[in-house]
Sequence to fold (95 residues):
Amino acid sequence: MAMAYLEITLKVDEADRPAAAAVYQKYKQPFLATVPGATSKDLLVREEDVQVLHGFDTTAQARDYLSSELFTKDVVAGLAPLLKAEPDIRVYETA
Fold:
């Protein structure tokens, strides 16, 4: 069965990463409980950036999440002051 992933890469200063992680933690459970097709959400911290990897049943559901109120009003508002560049947003589908 194919799955879809939404990968959002964030440029966040090292000093601001705990605040970014707090936004991730705050909205992880609401994401999993309320977003159609949501199957997982993981925070990946690298030296150069932070990534949030969201799992979905379909690519359409992944794209729909980007225009949801949870994403646009809650997540984006929480992260906006911490970002050093526009997020890199990609949607993938497994084979």
Observations:
- Helices lie at 17-34, 59-65, 69-79.
- The longest helix spans residues 17-34.
- The mean pLDDT is 95.
- The longest strand covers residues 38-45.
